[in-house]
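Researcher: Quick sanity check before group meeting.
Model: Go ahead. Protein one:
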Amino acid sequence: MAPMHVLRCCQRGLAWIPVIFIALVVCWSYYAYVVELCIFTITSIGKQVVYLIFFHFSFIMFVWSYWKTIFTKPANPSKEFCLAKAEKERYEKEERPESQQEILCRAAASLPLYTRTGAGAIRYCDRCQVIKPDRCHHCSACDMCVLKMDHHCPWVNNCVGFSNYKFFILFLAYSLLYCLFIAATVLQYFIKFWTNDLQETHSHAKFHVLFLFFVAAMFCISILSLFSYHLWLVGKNRSTIEAFRAPVFRTGSDKNGFSLGFRKNIAQVFGDQKKYWLLPVLTSQGDGLTFPTRLVNADIEQPTAVSSSEPNKSEVIVSPLSESHNRLLNNEQHTNSTVQHVAGSPIKSAPNDTIAIAISMESES
């Protein structure tokens, strides 16, 4: 036990090396830009003031978003996704996978679950002993299930998921802005140092200015590609995991299952109030446990909210149906008769038939 504990502590300590490296590079860049460039190299006071104002703005926003990404704890499944003590004991005693799935199905009957494993089974984490909510995955590095997990990032030593995904996007955006601003403003002095056009009195700053440009340009190129990729993911409402492995619903896998349209996809991450979009404060929609999803094929076990004017528009799942509604929707004869009614006559408002009509119209489309 003692060696394992020591090994785990060493692993946790080593995991901070990339973060410490980034912190040291940022501290050096601050010194090189403020002291060596603005104070010792630039002679115009007006240019110094303008450069320092914009530099400190990008620097503060970059450090703020980076801090929030690192120290925001990943969100975990709530207690309602844990098996009851009796169910957990029965699950552990069962040796047959079929019997274990029956236990999980009974436990998940009242939970808002729409995704399954590739084999169509309930997604369950044996390590954390919880039923996985939609878009939740187990992180081996953090040793926990993370809501809407995107990936584990060694540069922040944290899991990027529901609770800090917005912060991660802003971290990429402001780090890119920080590097672009440094590279753009240092370029002319980089050329002058390289061609020896500056006076010898500024020679002590030559190393810092030259190296500052190279570092800023290198990070700018790498961050730009990563930032562009994650903007594409936000627009599609996918995580990195879902981009490589499409989520599986009861009706099959669907890479666009959680896509609600570009604007709504953006709002899922950044929230409804645009004035907070550029600030590293949590404004993401939802609780990370449930997500609205469009139905490509009708899921007879879940209800849908359908727009009366646009029947082919993407639907949003509301909540699990009761047992009586499930029995109603599973009645194939009743569903077929409803389809004929929709095709042959106008739809009338009927509280008991609303859900069945919605499913039937989606099946036709």
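Researcher: Fine. The other one?
Model: Protein two, sequence then structure:
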Amino acid sequence: MEGASHGLEFCLAKEADFEQVMSISEDIYGGIDYLPAKYHAWLQEPDRRVILAKKKGQVIALVSANVVDDGCTAVVEGLRVAPMERGKGIAGIIQQYCFDLIRAQFPEVKVRRYTRSGYLGPETLAKFRLICKQEILLLRFELEEIRPKLDAAISQLKACGTEWEDPILLRASDVQRVFLNPNVVGGVLPGKTIVLDWAPYRPLQSNLEILLKKNLIWLADGQEEPRVLSLGATPYRIPMGADYNCLSIDLFGKHFPSARNQFLAQLQRGIGTLQGSLYCLLYLDPCLWQQMYSFCQISFGLHQERDFEGQNVLETEM
């Protein structure tokens, strides 16, 4: 299909397109881009479409849509345009092609969701419903230095008695019971949504089955009526050099002691035997950001690596 007046050709992404996709992604997220680690897995997901726009045979744009929520929602991810092609309307054109394809192949889809960072102006809010907002704390650890500090922080909290309770590792059967609990859905999950990294999912059985295949660490501060839940992803290599990895931790809930303890437990489990440098992306309720940042400054001597202006989940009709 030709893109109007831009001479574009659209196609589904293939394994062989990887290097060209990486070439248009070099400046994305300041070097901590997730796409190099997820690209090949995305191509294997049956309900995801990864679309490329090409000009004269060269990849100049990409967007992905993943159909979730029992087939009712398309989650739009990974949008990027080559630096020399930005400002020409190509992002809108490739997204429209993607939406048309999703409508044709998944007619039950009713809404599409995005996750964006930054300020949302009146024009954006007039087009989209804001489902939820999380803050982002980006930290950088040198792993050889952080391990003893992490152990010391946990030991100090345990010595205080009331400050530490071991987070509970949820099994698959626990996950389904806890995350489908109406009190958890309405009182713990932001906007009644499970947000994994940048991907929003409604708390549905079908979505939990998808998430349980992703080798996540599921923690809670209780199995019946938890106040805080967390998801820890597998660390992935990032294109900043040898021995650079990124770990994403999603925290749900507003009780700081439990959130702090789960952050420490997720970090301890996540770093494992990794060496080198680790970027940690911690997503958490806005009311917890300052307390968590202060804790990391005092316990680890860390400062935020970069300022992110929040994580906003948006929704509009398909």
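Researcher: One line on it for the slide.
Model: The mean pLDDT is 92.
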